[in-house]
Amino acid sequence: MLGWRALKTIIHWFRRDLRIADNVALHEAYTRGERLVPFFCWEDGLVDGPDCAPARTEFFLASLGSLVRNLEALGHRLVVRRGTPAVELRKLAAETGASAVFANRGYEPGGRRDDDAVAKALGAVSVGFQTFKDAVAWEEREILTAAGGVYTVFTPYSKAWKLRTPPPARPKLGKARQPMPPGIASAELPPGVAEPRVPTGPDGVPAGERAAQQALDAFVVERVFAYAEARDYPALAGGTSRLSPHLRLGTLGIRTILARLAEARARATSDAARKGCDVWLTELVWREFYQQILANHPHVATRCFRPEYDALGWSGTDAQFDAWRAGQTGYPIVDAAMRCLDATGWMHNRLRMIVSMFLTKDLLLPWQRGERWFMQRLVDGDLAANSGGWQWSAGTGTDAAPYFRIFNPVTQGRRFDPDGEFIRRWVPELAGLDAKAVHAPWEGPLAAAGARYPRPIVDHAVQRGRCLAMFKAARGA
Ligand SMILES: Cc1cc2nc3c(=O)[nH]c(=O)nc-3n(C[C@H](O)[C@H](O)[C@H](O)COP(=O)(O)OP(=O)(O)OC[C@H]3O[C@@H](n4cnc5c(N)ncnc54)[C@H](O)[C@@H]3O)c2cc1C
Q1: Residues 247-266 pLDDT 10s
Q2: Given this model, what pLDDT does residue 4 score?
Q3: How remote is the CA of residue 46 from the centroid of ligand 1, in Å?
Q4: CA pair distance 383, 122, nearest whole angstrom
Q5: N or C: which end of the chain has fewer CB within 10 A?
Q6: Is 142 designated active site?
Q7: Which of 349, 408, 421, 429 is an active site residue?
């Protein structure tokens, strides 16, 4: 019998790919090696860093727990170590006799730095390090303009993206063929690595790979057909897929999603249903667009895509920021959205657009402050989508809404929460108001509605004028 060191051993380093199905690097490690060592590195600040959101941490812990159990069911054991990836992977490679480490690529600056450090540390001891495309269908240098440049405008990027056939889903991980070498210790997992939590209310998102697959099944079987009309109404349960936390953490593979969407589109029996599928695909392409923007232009994480806007003369105050954060601005749709975010870690896309536009263009506060707050709260907080979304609203980004496009929060509320149902759910002070008054309580009998609700902290019309002047000054106009 061969000694365990003679077996070709490959370590799979789990990062933002906490799943056993449709996982490119994991599948390659399993099929190319004789023994698989699944590994996760518990880095400092992972669950208690300054930008950790409580909901995202809970979601992560539950997803990691689900991964541990899914691996165990197939006879694999996840090795967890505390430290830095470069150091821990090098040690583990020596302990297990691994010839290579496989991992899926990340597109954030931090992930790239880790890749470089790991490649160097493993290279020094002649252990291979191979990374794979997994989180996206197409990477940052795969969809290029005719001149070979990268796209910075969404519509032509999306057209080019849709001309290609996406890569197929990879098979689920198989049973362990060889036991783990003896004496490979694992760090103890914190008690938070529990059973995936069940939905806690209309705005809770259940975690784990099975929950992700169930959420996808539930969406593509029917709801996707109504997506084009339903997606803009926050009060509507199920109008959108709620898959963003799973995409962010990798509990669901993008190839699986795209394949299921193509099947759904083939089943669609009306133009409206086909449109629902097409509009949803466009949203998935937005995700890839922002990933490629971040990979090609990493400065967008903290600075404006357009450098001329780094000089914008933001003039909002800390007190206004605090009122926005706490859902106390006096604009009901903004306050409902912000309270929902604080309580659940979730915010509907339409509301993200409304509150981000309000912070930047009504309160005249820099988008970076809102972007950080979102990261500290959102269950799906993702650097690429978040900085992309914030810069879109602020008018400082690649494919931004033009700077002079400014949402009126009252009109937005009336249009997308017409009965005021979402507002009443999160702003109980306004529960007694009818559908007309609930969007602008200061116009009606505010006292009857409950004087506890604040009057608007700014006048939208006045702030609009100030915002336009601020942008004109920065543009030198
Ligand atoms: C200011 C602002 C901040 C945002 N921050 C984030 C963030 O931190 N993380 C995040 O995942 N999304 C972010 N978005 C994008 C979008 O709001 C969410 O992806 C969406 O609300 C998630 O809900 P869903 O899964 O039901 O989406 P669906 O409508 O079902 O869409 C399917 C998937 O497409 C992707 N997607 C949809 N819209 C966008 C978009 N505009 N940009 C990029 N990807 C998109 C998401 O992965 C989403 O899960 C932000 C948008 C704005 C305006």
Answers
A1: 999 999 999 999 999 999 99
A2: 61
A3: 23
A4: 28
A5: N
A6: no
A7: 349
How far is Cα 250 from Cα 19, in angstroms, rounded to an integer? 7
Intra-chain end-to-end CA distance of the chain, in Å: 79
Which domains can be identified in the chain, with CATH numbers?
7-134 (3.40.50.620), 209-296 (1.25.40.80), 307-471 (1.10.579.10)
The two tokens of residue 407 are 């949402």
8 Å CB contact between 309 and 396: yes
Give residue-wise pLDDT tens across range 43-63: 999 988 988 999 999 899 999
- Ligand 1: centre distance to CA 326 (Å): 22
User: In the structure, which protein residues have their CB atom closer than 6 angstroms to any atom of ligand 1?
Assistant: 231, 240-244, 247-248, 283-284, 286-287, 290, 349, 352-353, 356, 374, 378, 380-382, 385-386, 388-390, 393
CA 231/CA 278 separation, integer angstroms: 13
Answer for the pair 227, 190: CB distance below 8 angstroms, yes or no. no
Say how far apart CA 184 and CA 422 lie, in whole Å. Answer: 52
**Best residue among 229, 349, 372 to mutate for probing ligand 1, ranked by most atoms within 8 Å of CB:** 349
Q: Rounded to an integer, what distance in angstroms lies between the CA atom of residue 359 and that of residue 320? A: 9
Is the whole model's pTM more than 0.85, yes or no? yes
Residue 286 is a catalytic residue: yes
